[in-house]
Amino acid sequence: MEANEIYKVLLDQREELPFLVENNFVQRPEAALISLDNKQAQVVIGVRRSGKSTLCHMALLKAGLKYGYVNFDDDRLANLTVEDLNKVLEGLYRVYGNEIKHIFFDEIQNVDGWHLFVNRLLRQGLRIIITGSNAKLLSSELATHLTGRYNEIKLYPFSFRDYCAYRKLATDTPTTRNIAILKNTLEDYLMEGGFPELDTIADKHGYVGGLIDAIITKDIMKRFRIKNGSGLKTLANHIINNAGQMINLTELVETFKIGTDKTVRNYIDYLTQAFLMVPVTKFSYKSTERLRNGKAYVVDTGILTFHPNNITTENLGWRLENAVLLELLRRQTPQRRDISYYRPTSRSREVDFVVSERGRVLELLQVAYDISNPKTLSRELASLVEASRKTGCKNLTLIACTDTRKEIVDGMEINVVSAVEWFLHTAGNI
Fold first, then answer.
1. Count of CB atoms within 10 A of residue 387's CB?
2. What are the angstrom distances between the C-alpha of 174 and each of 33, 110, 177, 425?
3. What's the CA gap between 273 and 409, in Å, rounded?
4. Taking the model in full, what pTM does it have?
5. For the chain, which has fewer Cβ within 10 Å, the N-terminal or C-terminal residue?
6. Could you tell me where the beta strands, DSSP code E, fall in 368-404?
7. E strand or H helix at 424, and its extent?
8. Which residues on neighbouring strands pair with residue 43, listed in sequence order?
9. How many angstroms separate the Cα of 396 from the Cα of each of 42, 324, 345?
10. If DSSP codes are grouped into helix, strand and coil, which group holds residue 266?
11. What pLDDT is recorded for position 56?
12. What residue ranges in 89-247 does DSSP mark as E strands?
């Protein structure tokens, strides 16, 4: 591209900035992980439209910093090459001034070879903020070319606490009325999900459909040169409709006729890298067991409700389980803890989630929306007790839409926690 063309795009993008940072911005805890005075590149990754750009803009504005900004997810910059990046830098200085020390590159993975350019800027002492929507394209290149020179922050769509803050609800007022409001709001959250823009969109199905299409076409097909786009989309819809279920590669190959086990495994890997799908492995000390028995969830429960070809019911139990997984990832990933599920044999009772660290089980969690039926409660508690005996873990939690209390089963204490309380106040007992 010509330098003047790039300059004009950057001018247009600067004019759009006030519309990107809205007055009702939610202060999200991930912002505290961005270190703006650090020599390392600050890299925020996550699914499209999860709020990465807004998070970075607000962190920079709150710090009172003057910075340059370029959004590479702009169709006018679609054909940029690494050789054009010097022209981008020149344009940034023209638009924002020569004195800027911070530069924000939005969706920079769209330019092949970007890491060489960023590495050079870091060596020159510039402070770099990066966002990206593809985990492997970023992480592999960062690990290879920016070893020790980046701080990675993973951002998911709104947590339930973020969602309440967006709706300006009090979360620390335990009145009867407010507790009822929060319970109703949790149901809304489980159905609508946490994409920040979705609440303002009239055509929610169109919005989610467009999001999924952008993820598949831009973040997967274009990057990995996938020719069978219809097969990939069909597989993605199937996984969304069966969120939380075990993945059977052989069955998927036979059902969808899209290649071999390897093809399907690659497609699932691409969906994971683009953050549409969230995998959960089986807890096992055998790597073959972990590889063979994975489950797949989605990055936000709103996708379950509004995606095209939706055949799922309004089952709040599935959605609660999915939302609990995402909250566990928000809390435990920064501490480098693993999240898996527990079912050592086909005859064993299953526990939804295991929090572990270097193979040591720290907490067992079961999720059930409704435990008013004594048989349901007994079954969920028995699963935790059986897993506790096998793993030696005594930290047992049952998350449900009920009052918080303790249950004793066979001499073991189980924390039955209100889902609202767990999302808003329980950071874990580890």
1. 24
2. 30, 47, 8, 12
3. 41
4. 0.93
5. C
6. 396-400
7. helix 419-425
8. 130, 152
9. 36, 15, 20
10. helix
11. 96
12. 102-106, 127-132, 150-154, 245-246
